[in-house]
Design a protein that fits this description.
Two copies of one chain form a homodimer. Chain A has about 450 residues and is of the alpha/beta class. Chain A folds into three domains: about 140 residues, 3-Layer(aba) Sandwich (Rossmann fold), CATH 3.40.50; about 170 residues, Dihydrodipicolinate Reductase, domain 2, CATH 3.30.360; about 80 residues, Alpha-Beta Plaits (2-Layer Sandwich). Chain A contains 15 helices and 16 strands. In chain A, the strands form two sheets. In chain A, strands 7, 8, 9, 10, 11, 12, 13, 14, 15 and 16 form a ten-stranded mixed beta sheet that branches. In chain A, helix 5 runs parallel beside helix 6 and helix 6 runs parallel beside helix 11. The two termini of chain A are about 50 Å apart. Strand 12 of chain A pairs antiparallel with strand 12 of chain B. Chains A, B: Belongs to the homoserine dehydrogenase family. Chains A, B: Its EC number is 1.1.1.3. Chains A, B: Pathway: Amino-acid biosynthesis; L-methionine biosynthesis via de novo pathway; L-homoserine from L-aspartate: step 3/3; Amino-acid biosynthesis; L-threonine biosynthesis; L-threonine from L-aspartate: step 3/5.
Chain lengths: ~450, ~450
């Protein structure tokens, strides 16, 4: 059958949608609004047969009356009139996982936005899909509407990936950019974000870097052909980022971002999620507010930067629909870009590759104080690229000192940070932040 | 057969590569270097059977000894041991087109990087591919390694596209950014670019905006479901961009870019390629050197920005390989995202949507001069957002004046630009440039 005729003759592709929160209702809305366009592009009509959610009575601002209702997502997954099970419930265990397993085992294709599920059980689920001759797709799980899964599994198929990194939690980026623009401390902006409804019910998922780390683990698996290994991500959230550091970093030409970085090194797979300094005039540095950005580096293509809305009804539903249309078109690509059984168990790198670091400390007004600091850095094998001492202030005569080091190892930095307070010329704890080369 | 077994059991996919310039040799190199990785990702081995180019004797820095040689690309297209015909010759007519037609008619899939061919004959070729049950893919034709064709035909399938725009000729962007950073006039930097080998043999293709307009016509077709219609692109190159305008635009917070914009309006399809002002701190404004950027706006996903190398051996070959892997995986998507027969003939918009404009003129030192200028703008229905008059200089007392208008129509601007010299207070011709909202 030629592609021209597909649209007229083909049977509809029938969806069962489990989970009717923001993304679920957004997905229903697109299918209702763009039915004709979707049929044209997919080559066959795309319809919804049945839906499922916790509370049937909730007002959802979308007409669900023509769809069958299931109280239990697992029952939805088993319906014979469903071709694709669309899982938009969330959560790495429980009902979401059980329903996805049931759907794959009963011969359904699965589309999900569930980053936790994929980051933790991704290899098992992808393997199950392949064993059953089904597909499992999850474009919406990483960076909302940004087509990063497709870019990595398909567009960069001819590349050995060198590094993938990104700002993948809009709430954290909102908090950091708002701190800078309004000059407000972390706690104040955190409270603002909570009141605006930007935070997850458990805010640690956002500000603790968990959510972004789920996404990083998925990207790392695709990039390096390894099993998703969320447990091996070194995670630090944004809770310790101070307005002082944001201001001082800006003085030195940097911005602080919660940056996820994955790269394969000679010592294993490095997966880090932490506040890092990036040049203020780089694409990552210029990223404001809730927007997400992913940077992928391949040996042939060089650096690709993708930028867009990382969350929200429209963008995330748009990603869900792209997976649905792909399946409707008959596209069947392994979940992680290669057979699940071939994904290797990664050896986690025990330490990050060398980098420049930013160090901020409070120097007391004593003769030879700066010399002692410099000596500690020298003893730790760290050489200084730039240093700036601000004026002494307050009755105790404390002077902020900023140091940008040349490339050095995390171990050398740890050594110096531990030794600095012992000089007796430092007030409080020194702060160190990695400067990522972007 | 499950995906796990595909790699071991499947027959190799055999390529015939026509054209062994930069992109062709780059494609051969990736296939040689990443044979195992490609096999794993594609689910079957990818091999080269035969190649073709004008000059067999040329030293190409790549080992071609294990491939059959054809002097004629059309003969290569007809070989029985070729599954995909990879056309990297270029040119909208002649041998490239004939060979692609021959390949499609003889049942081969086709991958090409030929933007001119697609922009002009795209609908015919896509239709022929579909009639013959073959696919025609061309990721490499637009913006090199940036996966913009895939993003539009696949990732944004759930969106009505509102606007697509971009900086898609690296040479022009190099010239414009180099003019700004070095403070050099157009002619000097043009000559530099020529000596660096950045310009096409016919430089009008680059600086005249032709090459970028081919790309825009392809993107517009995918975005709006219309036949590619290069003839309807309103094209203006960068030849008239002066260092004065670059400096003055920077004073007002803008950068000048050769920007392609396509949008569907109530009055038809607008396709424009012209030097425009964009805010200096926008992603497009910050784009330096030879890098490309495409911005796509969809009704669900919002704004997606894709950035990367728009040309060069590695990036363009990476895009060619992504199409090859896609075909190897059995993916068969209509060339323009929907059946070629359904692509409508677009009604070209006779005029662009309203925008703010930048006007620069040389005011003579006469009483009431500025009032006369303001009166002309008012009579044309143009209101002024910002104006800046610099000091009079030279023995003739000429003062540069910059005006940023509120949104107005191109007709009103044309009217004003025609009327301004008649005031008798202007030296030389006034300059106007559109300010694109990005």
């Amino acid at each position: 059958m030629s592609a021209q005729n597909l649209g007229q003759n083909a049977s509809p592709l029938r969806l069962g949608i489990a989970g009717l929160g923001t993304v679920g209702t957004g997905t229903v809305k697109i299918i209702q609004k763009h039915a004709e366009l979707l049929g044209l592009r997919a080559g066959r009509p795309i319809t919804i047969t049945a839906v499922s959610a916790r509370d049937r009575m909730k007002n959802r601002d979308v007409d669900l009356s023509s769809y069958a209702w299931e109280d239990d997502a697992r029952a939805l997954a088993l319906r014979e009139d469903v071709d694709i099970f669309v899982e938009l419930i969330g959560g790495e265990e429980g009902i979401a996982r059980e329903a996805v397993l049931a759907a794959l085992k009963s011969g359904k294709d699965v589309v999900t936005a569930n980053k936790a599920l994929l980051a933790i059980h991704g290899q098992e689920l992808a393997g199950l899909a392949e064993t059953n001759g089904r597909v499992l797709r999850f474009e919406a799980a990483v960076a909302g509407g940004i087509p990063v899964i497709k870019a990595m599994t398909e567009s960069m198929a001819g590349n050995e990936i060198r590094r993938v990194m990104g700002v993948m939690n809009g709430t954290c980026n909102y908090i950091l950019t708002r701190m800078e623009s309004a000059g407000l401390p972390y706690e104040t902006v955190f409270e603002e974000a909570r009141q605006l409804g930007y935070l997850e019910a458990d805010p640690t998922l956002d500000v603790g870097g968990i959510d972004a780390s789920h996404k990083l683990a998925i990207l790392a698996a695709i990039a390096f052909g390894t099993r998703p290994s969320f447990d091996a991500v070194e995670i630090e959230g944004i809770e310790r980022v101070s307005i002082d550091d944001i201001r001082r970093a800006a003085d030195m030409g940097y911005r602080i971002k919660l940056l996820g970085v994955a790269q394969m090194t000679g010592r294993g797979l490095e997966q880090r999620m932490s506040p890092c300094l990036v040049p203020a005039d780089s694409p990552l540095g210029q990223l404001q507010g809730g927007t997400n950005m992913v940077v992928i580096e391949g040996d042939s293509v060089g650096q690709i930067v993708l930028r867009g809305a990382g969350a929200g009804e429209g963008p995330t539903a748009s990603a869900v629909i792209s997976d649905v249309v792909e399946i409707a078109r008959g596209v069947r690509i392994p979940s992680f870009g290669q057979p699940a059984a071939r994904l290797s168990v990664p050896q986690p790198a025990r330490t990050a590759v060398p980098a420049a670091y930013y160090i901020r400390l409070q120097l007391t007004d004593k003769p030879g104080a700066l010399a002692k600091v410099a000596a500690v850095l020298g003893d730790s094998g760290i050489s200084i690229d730039r240093m700036r001492q601000y004026g002494h202030s307050g009755h105790e005569g404390i002077a902020p000192v900023l140091i940008v080091t040349h490339k050095t190892t995390p171990e050398a930095i740890d050594h110096a940070i531990e030794a600095l307070p012992r000089t007796g010329v430092i007030a409080g704890e020194p702060v160190e932040l990695r400067i990522e080369e972007v």
